[in-house]
Amino acid sequence: MREVAVVLVGPKNEGNVGAVARAMKNFGARRLVLVDPCPIGDEARKRAMHATDILDEAVAVGNLEEALDGLDLVAGTTGISTQSEKKFLRIALSPREFAAKTAAMDGTLGILFGREDFGLRDEELARCDLLVSIPASPQYSILNLSHAAVVILYELFAARRPAGRRRKASRAENEVLHRTYAELLEATDYPPHKRVRTKVMFRRLVGRAVPSKWEFHALMGVLQRASKRIRRLERDRER
Questions:
Q1: Can you give the pLDDT at residue 89?
Q2: Contact criterion met (CB below 8 Å) for 112 and 120
Q3: By the number of CB atoms within 10 A of the CB, which of 36, 62, 167, 197 ranks highest?
Q4: Is 82:55 a contact under the CB 8 Å cutoff?
């Protein structure tokens, strides 16, 4: 079944951390990871109310790489969204679309929330498989951290599916697929200056699809076969 892990990157207000813990308890999420957090004290516990157990079990890490360990699919949250295909770094799903796409997932789904003042950095967003953005008034579109967590966790909770019809996800397989794609770009002599953006685009495309284990392996097999064939043809020409 799907497990939800909430990752707060650089939270600056302990009250917000406590309120997020409360929202997690409301909607059945238990795993809280804090990346380089502010001190967590009495204010956080007051805001958490009956969710102090989630605060007590929270894991604090020093960087994002540690936080991503054990997550099979990573979603980043952003207040800046676009539907422009040329600006794919910021193409985001709504919380309801996100919940529907991941409802049948079997694995650990990580949701990254950024800092209260400027959110997630571009390099952090680039590590995400997909993005989620909450539609809001253009006059003031940025939600408080804990309010954003409530909206997204509610949608995930409401979209739960019963056991069965699960799509097994694996972070390890996901990363092998992306390495295989990178090898294909190299084998085809794809322009080096375009590779970083193209790899992010491919990651987002795959992330939005939430492929099953079988689909991962089928796609990976095609990419690996193409890379090997291109390499073999190159070696034959050099002889």
A1: 64
A2: yes
A3: 167
A4: no
The CA–CA distances, whole Å, from 213 to 6, 69, 114, 151, 176 equal 24, 19, 30, 29, 12
Distance from first CA to last CA of the chain, Å, rounded? Answer: 53
- The C-alpha R_g of the chain, in whole angstroms, comes to 19
Q: Are 76 and 124 in contact (CB under 8 A)?
A: yes
3-state secondary structure of 31: strand
Strands 130-132 and 31-35: unpaired
Query: What does the pLDDT average to over 218-228?
Result: 87
Query: Cα 230 vs. chain centroid, distance in angstroms?
Result: 33
Q: pLDDT for 85-124, tens place per residue?
A: 555 566 899 999 999 999 888 889 999 999 999 899 989 9
Better pLDDT: 211 or 134: 134
Strands 105-113 and 2-9: parallel
User: Which tokens in the block code for residue 210?
Assistant: 């939430």
